[in-house]
Design goal:
The protein folds into two domains: 40-279, Beta-lactamase; 306-394, Sporulation related repeat (Alpha-Beta Plaits, 2-Layer Sandwich), CATH 3.30.70.1070. Helices cover 48% and strands 22% of the residues. It has 16 helices and 13 strands. The protein has a five-stranded antiparallel β-sheet, with helices on both faces. It has a four-stranded antiparallel β-sheet with strand order 11-12-10-13. Strands 3-4 form a two-stranded antiparallel ribbon. The chain starts with a helix and ends with a helix.
């Protein structure tokens, strides 16, 4: 083989290599994302483990700052094992100060007490403090994240992987609504001595006061935690724990469009869950003073957010078909309709009756977006302003 042949062969190999690289990059770009869908919601009865609501519960999504629930779980275990105390001072590294917002603004070389770190994670959702905790307990945040994942699997969160302690964007940091409900349940049951931190509304540190990001906790009676989360790839996430009438439920929402959208969905699926657990208890509860106060707050919130809207997805010859179509609509557009009330409304048409399939108790904007999504799926849909009787049936 002469030098010309060798050069030709080398050139051919180079072209094959480049072609292979282009194909590999194309496959990478067009491969399906690990996170299959952004929206998911899930509710369990914490006393029995019974599933009360489930939409995309096992779809892997980005947990965002819900990750800090696991960071706190690890911190609580260290406290329980007496490896640290509430007054233990944790040193702030330069790397911790480089974390993007939300931040407490701790300085490199300074220290922060464990107790203050807990408050910072619960209220401010401070990413810099999450790194401080990770480095204090694990040496490095990477090693701590590996321990978080290992521990998560041990408590039953089999679909969860952590890559950092804060929930900042990482394409391999994944969880599910079911797993996050499991974590919320574990926090409540395992650490009653520390669980009270999650209902903190305000916390003051070095002359500044920080409010809890979980605004729903202020208006939803019985809610005592747990954590909000947001990154652009995830949407607005929330894990809620509510104790009402001696019953506790854990709710999870992934992928809310806005904080209000997320909170409204959570309120609806929690209301439905309590009604399913004990209708008589809920009826009695609504008659009490607390219920009256909650009802007024709910009515004010309803007026502000205009939730007296609905969608109609057709009129059918039987009640059964209409009900089936209404339920199917909720499943087809869960990010707008999850937790809303399905209704069948009869209409006399000469000697015959038709039955209108409706979903009520949503915002005007959600209603129009739901119809748009349903029409793309070839589902007939129209938006309407719900009557007072229909709104009342949804409460």
């Amino acid at each position: 083989m002469n030098i010309t042949d060798i050069k030709a062969l080398s050139s051919q190999k180079k072209h094959l290599y480049v072609a292979g690289l282009v194909i590999a990059l194309a496959l990478t770009c067009f491969a399906p994302s690990t996170a299959q869908a952004k929206y998911a919601s899930f509710v369990i009865d914490a006393d029995t483990g019974r599933v009360l609501h489930s939409v995309n519960a096992d779809t892997r999504n980005y947990p965002a700052s819900l990750t800090k629930m696991m960071t706190l779980f690890m911190l609580f275990e260290a406290l329980e094992a007496k490896k640290i105390t509430m007054n233990t001072k944790m040193r702030v590294s330069r790397r911790a100060t480089w974390q993007p917002p939300s931040r407490l603004g701790v300085k490199a070389g300074s220290t922060i007490r464990v107790k203050d770190a807990i408050y910072a994670l619960v209220t401010k959702s401070a990413n810099d403090v999450a790194t401080v905790v990770a480095e204090a307990l694990g040496g490095t945040e990477w090693e701590f994240a590996k321990e978080m994942t290992k521990r998560a699997h041990e408590i039953g969160m089999k679909s969860t992987t952590f890559r950092n302690a804060s929930g900042l964007p990482n394409r391999r940091q994944m969880s599910t609504a079911r797993d996050m409900a499991k974590l919320g349940d574990e926090l409540w049951k395992r650490f009653p001595q520390y669980y009270g931190f999650f209902k903190t509304e305000k916390w003051s540190y070095k002359g500044r006061t920080y409010g809890n990001h979980n605004k729903l906790m202020k208006r939803y009676d019985g809610m005592d935690g747990i954590k909000t989360g947001y990154i652009r790839a995830a949407g607005f996430n929330l894990v809620s724990s509510v104790n009402r009438g001696g019953h506790r439920v854990i709710g999870v929402v992934f992928g809310g469009k806005t904080p209000t959208h997320r909170n409204n969905i959570m309120a609806r699926i929690l209301d439905n869950a309590f009604t399913e657990i004990d209708p008589q208890m809920m009826a009695a509860y609504k008659k009490g003073k607390k219920a009256e106060k909650a009802k007024k707050a709910y009515e004010i919130a309803s007026r502000r957010t205009s939730t007296a809207w609905g969608v109609q997805v057709g009129a059918y010859g039987s009640i059964k078909t209409a009900r089936t179509q209404a339920i199917a609509a909720v499943k087809r557009a869960p990010s707008y309709l999850a937790g809303a009330k399905t209704l069948v409304v009869p209409l006399k048409n000469g000697k015959k009756s038709v039955y209108r399939a409706r979903v009520v108790g949503i915002e005007k904007r959600e209603a129009y977006r739901a119809c748009k999504a349903l029409k793309r799926l070839k589902q007939p849909c129209m938006v309407f302003k719900a009557k007072n009787t229909e709104v009342a049936m949804n409460r």
